[in-house]
Amino acid sequence: MTVQILRDVMPEPKRKGSVWPRQRCPAFTPRQNASPKQAECWFCRYADFHLTEPVALEVGICCWPEVQLE
Question: Please, which pLDDT band fits residue 7 given cuts at 50, 70 and 90?
């Protein structure tokens, strides 16, 4: 079992800014299929990592308060 360490806990959403998978902010809201233990931007409803595209982005965009994926 691998334990991931959060790289950066932000004090607020980085609206329209770049976010990395292991970052998190107080506005984190998990997508439907995410586990509550996966509280990081990669699993957030407000982050756009182009997960529905053939190739996902390594660095996403915070679109808070606009939901990107349920």
Answer: low
